[in-house]
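Field log, afternoon session.

UNIT: design team B
ACTIVITY: writing a sequence onto a fixed backbone
BACKBONE:
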């Protein structure tokens, strides 16, 4: 999941040299699988949600744990597919088109 190491950076490094993460799950993946990955890899900033090999959304680590910390959050989201949490976050967040000024 952690693609590059910081010790490879030099004074001549560019943005493409910065560390990147690759953590994606299918929409049917249970929330507890994502929670386990976040606990095992505290450096992960979030997760990409995919369906049919296309990214349909992203959930940041902060958003994930904020929702789980609410009343009944653990019971509601850990044993259900991650798309349940994504659907709620997508409806509550203001999403802007890339062309928005």
């Amino acid at each position: 999941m952690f693609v590059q190491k910081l010790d490879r950076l030099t004074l001549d490094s560019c943005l493409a040299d910065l560390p990147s993460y690759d953590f994606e799950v299918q929409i049917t993946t249970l929330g507890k699988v994502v929670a386990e990955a976040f606990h095992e890899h505290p450096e992960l900033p979030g997760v990409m949600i995919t369906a049919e090999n296309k990214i349909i959304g992203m959930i940041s680590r902060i958003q994930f744990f904020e929702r789980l910390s609410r009343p009944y959050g653990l019971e509601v989201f850990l044993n259900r597919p991650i798309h349940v949490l994504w659907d709620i976050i997508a409806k509550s967040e203001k999403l802007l088109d890339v062309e928005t000024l």
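LOG NOTE: The beta strands are 24-26, 46-51, 54-60.
NEXT ACTIVITY: expression trials, pending approval
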